[in-house]
Amino acid sequence: MVFQSKIKTIHWDNNTSEIIDQRLLPYEFKTINIKTCEEMYIAIKDMIIRGAPAIGIAGAHGITLAAIELSKKFPSKDEFLKELNKKAQHLKSSRPTAVNLMWAIDKQMNLAQSTRGSINEITAALIENAIKMENEDIEINKKIGDYGASIVPKGAVILTHCNAGALATVGYGTALGVIRSAFAKDPTIKVFADETRPRQQGARLTTWELTQDGIPTTLITDGMCSYFMSKGMIDMVVVGADRIASNGDSANKIGTYTVAIAAKYHNIPFYIAAPTSTIDISIKTGKEIPIEERSHEEVTHINGDWICAKDVDIINPGFDVTPNELITGIITEKGILKPDFKESIKRINKL
Hints:
The chain has helices spanning about 35-45, 50-70, 75-90, 100-115, 120-150, 175-185, 200-210, 225-230, 255-265, 295-300, 340-350; strands at about 10-15, 15-20, 30-35, 155-160, 190-195, 215-220, 235-240, 245, 250-255, 270-275, 280, 300, 305, 320, 330, 335. It is an alpha/beta fold and about 350 residues long. A 7-stranded mixed sheet has the order 6-5-4-7-10-15-16, sandwiched between helices. The protein has a 4-stranded mixed sheet with strand order 11-8-9-14, covered by helices on one side. A 3-stranded antiparallel sheet has the order 1-2-3.
Protein backbone atom coordinates (compact mmCIF):
# COMPACT_ATOMS: atom_id res chain seq x y z
CA MET A 1 0.00 0.00 0.00
CA VAL A 2 1.31 3.47 -0.93
CA PHE A 3 -0.14 6.56 0.65
CA GLN A 4 -0.73 9.51 -1.65
CA SER A 5 -0.99 12.81 0.20
CA LYS A 6 -4.61 13.96 0.17
CA ILE A 7 -3.66 17.35 1.56
CA LYS A 8 -1.91 20.21 -0.25
CA THR A 9 -1.28 22.82 2.42
CA ILE A 10 0.06 25.51 0.12
CA HIS A 11 -0.08 25.84 -3.66
CA TRP A 12 0.99 28.52 -6.15
CA ASP A 13 -1.79 29.25 -8.64
CA ASN A 14 -2.10 32.11 -11.12
CA ASN A 15 0.05 34.61 -9.19
CA THR A 16 -1.56 33.85 -5.85
CA SER A 17 -0.70 31.48 -3.01
CA GLU A 18 -3.59 29.21 -2.05
CA ILE A 19 -3.32 27.94 1.53
CA ILE A 20 -5.46 25.90 3.92
CA ASP A 21 -6.75 28.00 6.82
CA GLN A 22 -5.55 25.81 9.69
CA ARG A 23 -7.26 27.91 12.34
CA LEU A 24 -10.60 26.42 11.28
CA LEU A 25 -9.70 22.73 11.37
CA PRO A 26 -11.18 20.27 12.24
CA TYR A 27 -14.49 22.16 12.26
CA GLU A 28 -14.25 23.54 8.73
CA PHE A 29 -12.01 22.95 5.70
CA LYS A 30 -11.38 26.18 3.83
CA THR A 31 -8.67 27.55 1.55
CA ILE A 32 -7.81 31.20 1.13
CA ASN A 33 -5.90 33.04 -1.59
CA ILE A 34 -2.94 35.15 -0.47
CA LYS A 35 -2.32 37.95 -2.97
CA THR A 36 0.29 40.19 -1.29
CA CYS A 37 3.44 39.84 0.77
CA GLU A 38 1.75 41.57 3.73
CA GLU A 39 -1.14 39.11 3.60
CA MET A 40 1.43 36.30 3.74
CA TYR A 41 3.14 37.94 6.72
CA ILE A 42 -0.18 37.95 8.58
CA ALA A 43 -0.97 34.37 7.50
CA ILE A 44 2.34 33.15 8.94
CA LYS A 45 2.25 35.25 12.12
CA ASP A 46 -1.38 34.37 12.91
CA MET A 47 -0.76 30.67 12.15
CA ILE A 48 -3.23 30.48 9.30
CA ILE A 49 -0.34 28.46 7.89
CA ARG A 50 2.10 26.82 10.31
CA GLY A 51 4.77 24.13 10.56
CA ALA A 52 8.42 24.84 9.73
CA PRO A 53 8.57 23.41 6.17
CA ALA A 54 5.18 24.89 5.26
CA ILE A 55 6.06 28.40 6.41
CA GLY A 56 9.35 28.05 4.54
CA ILE A 57 7.41 27.60 1.31
CA ALA A 58 5.05 30.37 2.43
CA GLY A 59 8.11 32.61 2.75
CA ALA A 60 9.21 31.70 -0.77
CA HIS A 61 5.73 32.50 -2.05
CA GLY A 62 5.68 35.73 -0.03
CA ILE A 63 8.87 37.02 -1.67
CA THR A 64 7.44 36.12 -5.07
CA LEU A 65 4.25 38.05 -4.30
CA ALA A 66 6.39 40.98 -3.17
CA ALA A 67 8.28 40.90 -6.46
CA ILE A 68 5.03 40.98 -8.43
CA GLU A 69 3.86 43.98 -6.37
CA LEU A 70 7.14 45.88 -6.58
CA SER A 71 7.62 45.27 -10.29
CA LYS A 72 4.66 47.58 -10.87
CA LYS A 73 6.09 50.36 -8.69
CA PHE A 74 9.85 50.46 -9.27
CA PRO A 75 11.20 50.56 -12.83
CA SER A 76 14.78 50.74 -11.52
CA LYS A 77 16.30 47.30 -10.87
CA ASP A 78 18.43 48.61 -8.00
CA GLU A 79 15.43 50.17 -6.28
CA PHE A 80 13.37 47.04 -6.92
CA LEU A 81 15.98 44.81 -5.23
CA LYS A 82 16.40 47.26 -2.34
CA GLU A 83 12.67 47.27 -1.64
CA LEU A 84 12.47 43.50 -2.11
CA ASN A 85 15.12 43.06 0.57
CA LYS A 86 13.06 45.22 2.96
CA LYS A 87 10.08 42.97 2.32
CA ALA A 88 12.25 39.93 2.97
CA GLN A 89 13.42 41.19 6.36
CA HIS A 90 9.85 42.02 7.36
CA LEU A 91 8.62 38.59 6.31
CA LYS A 92 11.38 36.86 8.29
CA SER A 93 10.18 38.58 11.48
CA SER A 94 6.77 36.86 11.33
CA ARG A 95 8.00 33.67 13.09
CA PRO A 96 11.56 33.87 14.50
CA THR A 97 12.14 30.27 15.63
CA ALA A 98 11.55 28.21 12.46
CA VAL A 99 14.73 28.47 10.39
CA ASN A 100 13.04 27.09 7.25
CA LEU A 101 11.39 30.49 6.84
CA MET A 102 14.76 32.26 6.73
CA TRP A 103 16.25 29.50 4.56
CA ALA A 104 13.55 29.77 1.90
CA ILE A 105 13.50 33.58 1.85
CA ASP A 106 17.29 33.67 1.53
CA LYS A 107 17.16 31.23 -1.38
CA GLN A 108 14.69 33.48 -3.17
CA MET A 109 16.69 36.64 -2.41
CA ASN A 110 19.93 35.05 -3.60
CA LEU A 111 18.17 34.11 -6.83
CA ALA A 112 16.76 37.62 -7.28
CA GLN A 113 20.15 39.23 -6.76
CA SER A 114 22.01 36.83 -9.03
CA THR A 115 19.54 36.76 -11.93
CA ARG A 116 20.69 38.82 -14.86
CA GLY A 117 18.10 40.59 -16.90
CA SER A 118 15.03 42.70 -16.32
CA ILE A 119 12.75 42.97 -13.29
CA ASN A 120 10.20 40.87 -15.14
CA GLU A 121 12.81 38.16 -15.72
CA ILE A 122 13.71 38.19 -12.01
CA THR A 123 10.04 37.88 -11.08
CA ALA A 124 9.57 35.00 -13.52
CA ALA A 125 12.59 33.23 -12.02
CA LEU A 126 11.18 33.66 -8.50
CA ILE A 127 7.83 32.20 -9.55
CA GLU A 128 9.53 29.21 -11.17
CA ASN A 129 11.72 28.58 -8.12
CA ALA A 130 8.83 28.93 -5.67
CA ILE A 131 6.91 26.24 -7.54
CA LYS A 132 10.04 24.07 -7.69
CA MET A 133 10.59 24.37 -3.92
CA GLU A 134 6.93 23.55 -3.33
CA ASN A 135 7.15 20.34 -5.36
CA GLU A 136 10.51 19.35 -3.86
CA ASP A 137 9.07 19.56 -0.33
CA ILE A 138 6.73 16.62 -0.92
CA GLU A 139 9.53 14.47 -2.38
CA ILE A 140 11.79 15.33 0.56
CA ASN A 141 9.06 14.32 3.01
CA LYS A 142 8.55 10.99 1.27
CA LYS A 143 12.27 10.26 1.57
CA ILE A 144 12.12 11.13 5.28
CA GLY A 145 9.14 8.79 5.56
CA ASP A 146 10.98 5.92 3.87
CA TYR A 147 14.08 6.27 6.05
CA GLY A 148 11.95 6.53 9.18
CA ALA A 149 9.76 3.55 8.29
CA SER A 150 12.87 1.33 8.19
CA ILE A 151 13.36 1.71 11.96
CA VAL A 152 9.74 1.37 13.10
CA PRO A 153 9.18 -2.02 14.79
CA LYS A 154 6.32 -4.19 13.58
CA GLY A 155 3.09 -3.38 15.39
CA ALA A 156 4.65 -0.33 17.08
CA VAL A 157 2.69 2.29 18.97
CA ILE A 158 4.20 5.68 18.08
CA LEU A 159 3.75 8.81 20.17
CA THR A 160 3.91 12.17 18.39
CA HIS A 161 3.65 15.71 19.73
CA CYS A 162 2.10 18.71 17.93
CA ASN A 163 1.53 18.37 14.18
CA ALA A 164 4.40 17.50 11.87
CA GLY A 165 2.18 16.19 9.13
CA ALA A 166 0.99 17.22 5.69
CA LEU A 167 -0.45 20.37 7.26
CA ALA A 168 3.00 21.37 8.55
CA THR A 169 4.55 20.87 5.11
CA VAL A 170 3.37 21.17 1.52
CA GLY A 171 2.14 17.58 1.78
CA TYR A 172 2.80 14.13 3.33
CA GLY A 173 4.65 15.35 6.44
CA THR A 174 7.84 14.75 8.39
CA ALA A 175 7.01 12.93 11.63
CA LEU A 176 3.63 11.92 10.22
CA GLY A 177 5.38 11.10 6.97
CA VAL A 178 7.34 8.47 8.91
CA ILE A 179 4.07 7.17 10.34
CA ARG A 180 2.37 7.15 6.92
CA SER A 181 5.24 5.27 5.30
CA ALA A 182 5.46 2.80 8.20
CA PHE A 183 1.70 2.18 8.17
CA ALA A 184 1.80 1.54 4.42
CA LYS A 185 4.12 -1.40 5.15
CA ASP A 186 2.52 -2.49 8.40
CA PRO A 187 -1.16 -1.61 9.02
CA THR A 188 -0.94 -2.88 12.61
CA ILE A 189 0.90 0.31 13.60
CA LYS A 190 -0.96 2.67 15.95
CA VAL A 191 -0.46 6.27 17.04
CA PHE A 192 -0.79 8.20 20.30
CA ALA A 193 -1.17 11.95 19.66
CA ASP A 194 -0.52 14.54 22.35
CA GLU A 195 -3.19 17.24 22.58
CA THR A 196 -0.46 19.93 22.41
CA ARG A 197 -1.59 22.91 24.42
CA PRO A 198 -2.11 25.77 24.08
CA ARG A 199 -3.28 25.68 20.43
CA GLN A 200 -4.16 21.95 20.37
CA GLN A 201 -2.39 21.18 17.10
CA GLY A 202 -2.26 17.52 18.07
CA ALA A 203 -5.95 17.34 18.91
CA ARG A 204 -7.18 19.53 16.05
CA LEU A 205 -4.76 18.73 13.23
CA THR A 206 -2.86 15.50 13.83
CA THR A 207 -5.91 13.44 14.73
CA TRP A 208 -7.77 14.94 11.75
CA GLU A 209 -4.98 13.99 9.34
CA LEU A 210 -4.40 10.48 10.62
CA THR A 211 -8.05 9.49 10.88
CA GLN A 212 -8.54 10.70 7.29
CA ASP A 213 -5.90 8.13 6.30
CA GLY A 214 -7.48 5.41 8.43
CA ILE A 215 -4.49 5.20 10.78
CA PRO A 216 -5.62 4.14 14.31
CA THR A 217 -5.02 7.14 16.58
CA THR A 218 -5.53 7.71 20.29
CA LEU A 219 -5.64 11.29 21.62
CA ILE A 220 -4.08 11.95 25.03
CA THR A 221 -3.49 15.14 26.98
CA ASP A 222 0.05 16.49 27.28
CA GLY A 223 0.52 15.30 30.87
CA MET A 224 -0.32 11.66 30.14
CA CYS A 225 2.73 10.46 28.19
CA SER A 226 4.73 9.27 31.22
CA TYR A 227 1.77 7.22 32.45
CA PHE A 228 1.42 5.35 29.16
CA MET A 229 5.18 4.92 28.83
CA SER A 230 5.31 3.37 32.29
CA LYS A 231 2.60 0.91 31.23
CA GLY A 232 4.66 -0.21 28.22
CA MET A 233 2.05 1.18 25.84
CA ILE A 234 4.41 3.37 23.76
CA ASP A 235 7.27 1.91 21.69
CA MET A 236 8.84 5.02 20.18
CA VAL A 237 8.44 8.77 19.83
CA VAL A 238 8.67 10.67 16.53
CA VAL A 239 8.29 14.46 16.43
CA GLY A 240 9.19 17.28 14.06
CA ALA A 241 11.50 20.25 14.56
CA ASP A 242 11.53 23.96 13.80
CA ARG A 243 15.28 24.47 14.13
CA ILE A 244 18.16 22.09 14.80
CA ALA A 245 21.50 23.43 16.03
CA SER A 246 24.79 22.11 14.63
CA ASN A 247 25.19 19.89 17.71
CA GLY A 248 21.73 18.31 17.28
CA ASP A 249 19.85 20.29 19.95
CA SER A 250 16.33 20.61 18.50
CA ALA A 251 13.61 23.21 18.95
CA ASN A 252 10.05 22.00 18.56
CA LYS A 253 6.62 22.87 19.90
CA ILE A 254 6.54 23.57 23.64
CA GLY A 255 6.18 20.32 25.57
CA THR A 256 8.50 18.29 23.34
CA TYR A 257 11.35 18.55 25.87
CA THR A 258 9.08 17.03 28.53
CA VAL A 259 8.23 14.11 26.24
CA ALA A 260 11.93 13.54 25.52
CA ILE A 261 12.80 13.43 29.23
CA ALA A 262 10.03 10.89 29.86
CA ALA A 263 11.17 8.77 26.92
CA LYS A 264 14.77 8.76 28.13
CA TYR A 265 13.69 7.64 31.62
CA HIS A 266 11.62 4.78 30.18
CA ASN A 267 14.27 3.75 27.61
CA ILE A 268 12.01 4.59 24.67
CA PRO A 269 13.65 5.73 21.41
CA PHE A 270 13.05 9.43 20.69
CA TYR A 271 13.43 10.58 17.07
CA ILE A 272 13.31 13.94 15.34
CA ALA A 273 12.04 13.93 11.73
CA ALA A 274 12.98 17.01 9.72
CA PRO A 275 14.45 18.07 6.38
CA THR A 276 18.09 19.16 6.29
CA SER A 277 16.85 22.73 5.68
CA THR A 278 15.80 22.73 9.36
CA ILE A 279 19.44 22.31 10.45
CA ASP A 280 21.02 25.66 11.26
CA ILE A 281 24.78 25.13 11.07
CA SER A 282 25.38 28.78 11.97
CA ILE A 283 24.56 28.11 15.62
CA LYS A 284 26.52 25.80 17.92
CA THR A 285 23.86 24.79 20.45
CA GLY A 286 20.17 25.11 21.19
CA LYS A 287 20.88 27.98 23.59
CA GLU A 288 21.26 30.22 20.54
CA ILE A 289 17.83 29.37 19.10
CA PRO A 290 15.41 32.31 19.47
CA ILE A 291 12.21 31.23 21.21
CA GLU A 292 9.03 32.95 20.09
CA GLU A 293 6.82 34.35 22.84
CA ARG A 294 3.22 34.18 21.68
CA SER A 295 -0.02 35.84 22.67
CA HIS A 296 -1.25 35.33 26.23
CA GLU A 297 -4.75 34.77 24.88
CA GLU A 298 -3.66 31.41 23.46
CA VAL A 299 -3.30 30.21 27.07
CA THR A 300 -6.20 32.05 28.68
CA HIS A 301 -8.82 31.18 26.04
CA ILE A 302 -10.12 28.13 24.22
CA ASN A 303 -12.46 28.78 21.28
CA GLY A 304 -12.83 32.38 22.44
CA ASP A 305 -13.83 31.55 26.02
CA TRP A 306 -11.85 32.33 29.18
CA ILE A 307 -10.61 29.21 31.01
CA CYS A 308 -8.81 30.87 33.95
CA ALA A 309 -8.90 33.78 36.38
CA LYS A 310 -8.64 37.05 34.47
CA ASP A 311 -5.89 38.56 36.66
CA VAL A 312 -3.47 35.61 36.44
CA ASP A 313 0.05 36.11 35.01
CA ILE A 314 0.82 34.34 31.71
CA ILE A 315 4.02 33.18 30.02
CA ASN A 316 3.61 31.59 26.60
CA PRO A 317 6.80 30.42 24.85
CA GLY A 318 5.89 28.72 21.58
CA PHE A 319 8.81 26.29 21.60
CA ASP A 320 11.32 24.51 23.80
CA VAL A 321 14.69 22.95 23.01
CA THR A 322 15.41 19.23 23.45
CA PRO A 323 19.12 18.64 24.25
CA ASN A 324 20.92 16.29 21.87
CA GLU A 325 21.64 13.71 24.57
CA LEU A 326 17.91 12.93 24.73
CA ILE A 327 17.64 12.31 20.97
CA THR A 328 18.12 8.81 19.55
CA GLY A 329 18.34 9.96 15.94
CA ILE A 330 17.38 12.69 13.47
CA ILE A 331 15.54 11.37 10.40
CA THR A 332 16.29 13.46 7.29
CA GLU A 333 15.88 13.06 3.54
CA LYS A 334 19.58 12.15 3.40
CA GLY A 335 19.42 9.43 6.02
CA ILE A 336 19.17 8.98 9.78
CA LEU A 337 21.70 10.97 11.79
CA LYS A 338 23.04 9.37 14.95
CA PRO A 339 25.21 10.69 17.79
CA ASP A 340 27.74 12.30 17.71
CA PHE A 341 25.32 14.71 15.99
CA LYS A 342 27.95 17.39 15.50
CA GLU A 343 29.97 14.99 13.35
CA SER A 344 26.99 13.39 11.55
CA ILE A 345 25.60 16.84 10.67
CA LYS A 346 29.00 17.82 9.27
CA ARG A 347 29.06 14.67 7.14
CA ILE A 348 25.55 15.11 5.82
CA ASN A 349 26.22 18.71 4.80
CA LYS A 350 28.94 17.43 2.47
CA LEU A 351 26.54 15.16 0.58
